[in-house]
Design brief:
By secondary structure, the protein is mostly helical. The protein is built from 17 helices and no strands. The longest helix has about 55 residues.
Length: about 425
């Protein structure tokens, strides 16, 4: 009698990537992507300044970053699904509450203390760590698809928010955002999030188990669920963690300041709000291209030249904005901005993975985020105050270009392994 051998289960990792893409899409869309579109309506509704609202974004980054070590620890312990579903519920509750806020302090509390914390629990850090656990050799490509979710959010959310604000008001817009988080997030995270390939008998990248293990365990062998531990204290003592966090933290201030300042800057130039929001629409397809193509290349090319290429591209974007461009040129700068910033996310993930591996990726990105936190949180507040004090965004653009160059210099001192070891 012939032995019946069951077909191997298809590699689940790309379904995990789809969930991570969705997490990036939703978390970015309801927190930072459309923030600039709300600046003028909220400043008028609550009779406050743009600089004051900018402090709200800074506090939100502080709250999100403070969650990083805790989120990273949960992720490395394999609690991704429960955590991401819980974060979805928290963020949606905050959005519904925001639609009914009547005082500025209520807006600040709900946005900074509820929505951004919910987004931190299901968004950027969880999605990156989740995918890093499923991929090693193709980590850059997988992370490129993952962070593309944030790009789609930047493409869709600003013009959508501008349209909704004009038709249903800013309160109604927050209601729609809350419904979208629930309707999209809950089924996707509940169905597709699995913390590690070992949990379902698979290996990173869909690789088969080593021949020796398969022979020893038999044809129905399941890959072991235990992974080697990396001591958290040892991770904290590694200087590379802090250099990477500060260096990439400075680079990541670029899209944050862009989200905050671009639409008001364009409106000051006489460009309508809806048209100004299309800057991010112009950036989106090129950012997708940058994330996916550069993500695949990041697995193969030396990291330090790649870092400087990304830094130079972003500096060029801010230099061109300094010239007060017309609308056509503004859209062209948006496309260049998409290419330049699109490469940062997958590059960051690949470098972290090479240095610390998948078993400590969650803690590395969470703990390291504390070092970057003051930089990221301070950036929107500084840009808002610079505008309030000068009445112009030119100083903002110059400071951001300097921050990018400093970030590239710091990253140049990090010793990065040529390949991922685990």
């Amino acid at each position: 009698m012939n032995e019946i051998v069951s077909a191997p289960r298809p590699f689940y990792g790309w379904r995990v990537v789809s969930a991570a893409f969705t997490a990036q899409l939703l978390s970015t869309g309801v927190t930072f992507a459309a923030f600039g579109v709300f600046v003028i309506p909220l400043s008028q509704a609550f009779e406050t300044t743009r600089g004051t609202l900018s402090f709200g974004l800074s506090i939100a980054f502080l709250a999100m970053g403070a969650m990083g070590p805790l989120v990273g620890r949960w992720l490395d312990r394999g609690h991704a699904r429960v955590m991401m579903i819980s974060g979805t519920l928290i963020a949606a509750a905050g959005l519904f509450g925001l639609s009914r806020a009547t005082e500025l302090w209520q807006m600040a509390l709900l946005f900074c203390g509820v929505i951004t914390i919910g987004a931190a629990i299901f968004g950027s850090t969880p999605s990156m760590a989740l995918v890093a656990s499923w991929f090693v050799r193709r980590r850059g490509l997988a992370l490129g698809f993952t962070v593309a979710g944030a790009t789609v959010a930047s493409f869709v959310t600003p013009p959508l928010a501008a349209y909704l604000i004009d038709h249903v008001g800013w309160r109604g817009t927050f209601v729609y955002f809350g419904v979208a988080v629930l309707v999209i997030g809950l089924p996707v995270f509940g169905s597709f999030v699995i913390a590690r390939p070992e949990s379902i008998g698979q290996r990173p990248d869909g690789d088969p188990p080593p021949a020796a293990d398969a022979d020893a365990l038999g044809s129905d062998a399941v890959a072991p669920t235990a992974l080697p531990e990396i001591d958290t204290a040892e991770l904290i003592r590694d200087s590379r963690l802090w250099l990477l966090s500060v260096g990439f933290g400075l680079v990541f201030t670029s899209p944050i300041v862009m989200i905050l300042s671009l639409v008001p800057f364009a409106e000051d130039l006489g460009i309508a709000r809806q048209n100004a929001a299309y800057f991010f629409s112009a950036a989106a397809p090129f950012s997708l291209l940058g994330k996916i193509v550069f993500g695949a290349l990041a697995d193969r090319i030396p990291p330090h030249p790649a870092i400087w290429l990304v830094v130079a591209g972003n500096v060029l974007v801010w230099s061109l904005l300094y010239t007060d461009p017309g609308y056509a040129m503004l859209l062209g700068i948006g496309a260049l901005n998409g290419l330049a910033i699109g490469a940062v996310g997958p590059l960051h993930g690949v470098v972290l993975g090479r240095c610390f591996g998948r078993v400590a990726f969650g803690r590395a990105i969470g703990i390291g985020g504390l070092a970057a936190l003051p930089l990221i949180a301070f950036a929107p507040a500084l840009s808002g105050q610079l505008y309030d004090s000068t009445g112009s965004y030119h100083t903002v653009f110059g400071v951001e270009a300097a921050a990018l160059l400093l970030g590239g210099l710091i990253l140049s001192f990090v010793r990065i392994p040529k390949v991922s070891t685990h």
